Amino acid sequence: MTTTLTQPLTSRFTRRPDAPHPVTRHPFVAAAGRFGPNWYAAVMGTAIVANGAHVLPGVASTAWAQVWAQAFWALGFAGLVVLAGTRLVGRLHHARVRPLDDPSVAVFLGCPPMALMAVGFGALGAGEPLLGHGLALALDAVLWTLGTVYGLWAAGTVLYRLAMHYDVARADAAPTWLLPVVAPMVSAALGPALIPHLPVGQAQLTMLFACIAMFGLSLVAVLMLLPTLFARLAHDGPLPPALIPTLFLVLGPLGQSVTAVTQFAAHGPAALGAPLGGFALLYGVPVFGFALLWLAVAGAATVHGLRKGMPFAMTWWAYTFPVGTCVTGAAGLYARTGLTAFAVVQVALYVLLVSAWAVAAVRTARALPTFLRG
């Protein structure tokens, strides 16, 4: 990836000589065709700013915090709609190109479902005053369902192709491989918010255990991939400069899994309260500790990369959503324990999240005109 934002991804999305209709030669259609699935990372990063603000301790009820969260949720929702429409138009230009044909593109198919669910979850939080409860609930239910189905398909399909079809070496491994398998973890973490709105009994239990199953599915897949990724780092040298920000993607399954277990405890039936609450702490605290360790490692790698002239690319959005999952994870642990330390860490991580979002957004806006011109 370079300052053209999506290289080398878009270098593979070139119009085939035999593409038929003249409309595909229209400049707008051609420009739309340059947007790959990795662009949904910007929507994810924007939505998590709203979701993180909504759970900040002590300020979520203040007027300025509500306006702040609502503004970012609206921006994320607008970005999702615009990007989905742009990608749909772009398919006219690349009608015969399939993202699954290339492993470096296929892994980013995990981004669209996570963007859908992050915006949907925000509808029940920051977006509810804007939409009203009924519309917010319906939007979250629809986007969570679409994102879950999409995410499960992406996780299974990309894993299968990595194992059976793609010709990849260990040196090709990158943290982006985690994107498809983290999507079900997002389903697991954000699905419990819908449990109180389901009929008591079988419906609520089915939703809870479906989320727990997706938690396990994603966690085992991540644990399967992480040794390969670390072996690549340890034995094949550092990542290319433009991929250094993707080291932050490791935080995604860590923070999101902590968020998930605390949400299970918060929204599970009363009969399961004690076991789920105990598991939330026994799992959440140690994993959150490792997340902070990896944050330091990835942060040091970023500083080293910047000193070596690391270029801007869309991978810089990896500094947003994964950090945001740690914000929501810390919020869940604070809610379970009441420990001030978790509140302090949560606020500090949120400041880091907003700073990263501002840098990524400004740099993207600056590079966008050049990108659209091709």
From TrEMBL:
Pfam families: SLAC1. The chain crosses the membrane at residues 63-84, 105-126, 141-162, 174-195, 207-230, 242-266, 278-304, 316-335, 341-362. Residues 1-21 are annotated as: Disordered. Coiled coil: none annotated. Gene3D superfamilies: Voltage-dependent anion channel (1.50.10.150). It is a multi-pass membrane protein. Its main location: membrane. It is found in: Cell membrane. Keywords: Cell membrane, Membrane, Transmembrane, Transmembrane helix, Transport. Residues 1-12 have a biased composition (Polar residues). GO terms for cellular component: plasma membrane. InterPro entries: SLAC1/Mae1/Ssu1/TehA, Sulfite_efflux_TDT, Voltage-dep_anion_channel_sf. One of its GO terms (biological process) is transmembrane transport. Belongs to the tellurite-resistance/dicarboxylate transporter (TDT) family. This is TDT family transporter. The lineage of its organism: Bacteria, Bacillati, Actinomycetota, Actinomycetes, Kitasatosporales.
